[in-house]
Amino acid sequence: MHKFTVGLAQINTRLGVPEANLETHLARIREAKGAGADLLVFPELSLTGYVLQDLAPEVAHRPAPDDPLFAPLLEASRGLDIVVGFVEEGPRHRFYIADAYLAGGEVVHVHRKVYLPTYGLFDEGRFFAWGDEVRAFDTRFGRMGMLICEDFWHASPPYLLWLDGADMLLFTSASPGRGLSAAPQLESARWVEHINRAYASLFTVFVAHANRVGYEDGLHFWGGSTLFDPAGELLAQAPYDEEALIFHEVDLRELHRVRARLPLLRDERTALVQRELARILSQPNRLR
Amino acid sequence: MPSIDLTINTDLARRILTGFIRSEIGRIGLKRAVVGLSGGVDSALSCFLAAEALGPENVLAVRMPYRTSSRESLEHAQMVIDATGVRSLTADITEMVEPYFARFPEMDKRRRGNMMARARMMVLYDQSAAFGGLVVGTSNKTEILLGYSTLYGDSAYAINPIGDLYKTQVWQLSEAVGVPEVIIKKAPTADLWAGQTDEQELGFSYREADRLLYLLVDRRYTPQECVAEGFNEAFVQAVVRRMRRNHFKRLMPPIAKLSNRTIGYDFLYLRDWGT
Fold first, then answer.
1. What is the pLDDT of residues A38-54, one digit of tens each?
2. I need a surface site. Which of A30, A69, A237, B48 has the fewest CB within 10 A?
């Protein structure tokens, strides 16, 4: 399948009420199916809201068919692949910020957020366990990778997914806006758009980013979800600060065309990277 | 001196702040706001933003003069009411506070001023119950950082749209949303006694304080670095001292910890919990 339609569900959420957010998801999924979408990406923690603090264990779920939150989502994933954000409770009761890729009634892949920002206004490390894997996975639209917000503020996770075979990166965020100046965009919005475009260009991959909107206390989530093509061109962008459901067709043959012109993946020196990385890490003072 | 540019994109600020008011009032099932209008620029801006966010019919502006309040303050507040089309009422606080002042004739102007600010808080919270709306705050970032406010007086409110804007930025946004120029241009005053102005009482100008606070707070310069950049040392020390000494006004009062789970320390939920 060379062409398929990606949807970005830029939603607001209710804080700590997964059942209410589930209804929002199911409604958007119905709309997306009606519009002919093949894949619909929801933002980070789309089923729970973002600043959970002590709510984190209370809203945790397991992505399984017998889970009351996931049963209807898995059912809805027949005919339309879905990425949802949730709090995952691990088998030994560690709590993760996670994204699940659901398709055909199955859980295809779960990504646990690797980088938990615990600085400035963020306090994720206090409430969540960090994930310890960055893995690409196969879908009916090719190989993909998922990262959650702070994961892609670091260059290494997208790089690893690229080497692991992902031709499309699915990024999700609940990004609180910050950095008001004379510029028409918040500093945080400008930064995220820059790096999304940069990853698409550097790795010659598709990059979809679903960001949420709304407020939690004084925090404001700015939206502006984007889809970039492997040349780094912006294919689609949702508006800032309002709920939206946007769609755009992805033509996977673009990978062929762009990489024929710009063989960055072909020329990537992975053995060199491995060798040098091993050397650098054997000298621990390099990171200090 | 590093470049200090406090200019903001007013369209963006306006969109975020009106959305904030709409969201934070709406998500608890209300649609109305109450604003105490002093005649000054801060409350004028909060009122304009609330009117834009909720519709003027859903905003109640309350003027609360005391017998010594300037005529001009009342008139400027009326200009805001007329310009926004919000609902309004005037509740003179003289009869609330005078019997108390008579009982304690030794009260100095600071105690009297604080008493008046708290009487106004009582009126606003009562009117918010009658009107079915939340009290929208009018404190800006400069005065919150300097602690230039009355605890449980003008610092009491349900939500504050302008608390992350320095006074200089309040002026800029006020111009953009259409606050009458005479209100923006006049000398800021708490109007707690005749002839009072903020800048005279503080001992420095807001413009200068904003530039310094921006370096100290937003850019994380040390006080020594600010002096090295050219700020007057006594001024820097005065501002830093004010910030530190008044920090208590920015916090909930501490609760002595006894149990395993104590409010304020390890009982952590946002205000928007469940909404």
1. 999 999 999 999 999 99
2. A30
**Residue A8 forms beta bridges with which residues?**
A41, A246
Percent of chain A with pLDDT over 90: 97
Contacts of B16 in chain A (CB under 8 A): 177, 180, 220, 241
Question: ipTM of the predicted structure?
Answer: 0.93
Could you tell me if A214 lies within 8 Å of chain B, comparing CB atoms? yes
Nearest CA in chain B to A242: B19
Q: Does B264 touch chain A (CB under 8 A)?
A: no
Q: Cα-flanking dihedrals φ and ψ of residue B269, to 5°?
A: -140, 145
What gap in Å lies between CA B154 and CA B147, rounded to an integer? 11
CB contact, 8 Å: A186 with chain B? yes
Range of the domain at B169: 10-196
Q: Where are the beta strands (DSSP E) in chain A?
A: 3-10, 39-41, 81-89, 95-103, 106-112, 137-139, 142-148, 168-173, 206-211, 213-216, 219-222, 226-228, 234-237, 244-251
B145 CB-near residues (< 8 Å, 6+ apart): B213, B217, B243
In chain A, where the domains are located: 3-263
Residue B241: closest CA among B203, B199, B211: B203
Q: Testing the interface with A: which of B16, B141, B162, B170 to mutate, by most A Cβ within 10 A?
A: B16
Q: Tell me if chain B has a CB within 8 Å of the CB of A183.
A: yes
Query: What is the pLDDT confidence band of residue B193, given thresholds at 50, 70 and 90?
Result: confident
Question: Is B192 a domain residue?
Answer: yes
CATH number at residue B99: 3.40.50.620
* Tens digits of residue pLDDT in A168-218: 999 999 999 999 999 999 999 999 999 999 999 999 999 999 999 999 999
Tell me, yes or no, whether B73 lies in a domain. Answer: yes
Domains identified in chain B, total number: 1
Does A14 reach chain B within 8 Å, measured CB to CB?
Answer: yes
In a domain, B173, yes or no: yes
- Is residue B254 in some structural domain? no
d(CA A215, CA A192): 19
Tell me whether strands A95-103 and A106-112 are parallel, antiparallel or unpaired: antiparallel
Select from B5, B23, B270 the Cβ nearest to the Cβ of A214: B23
SS3 for B169? helix
Tell me if chain B has a CB within 8 Å of the CB of A131: no
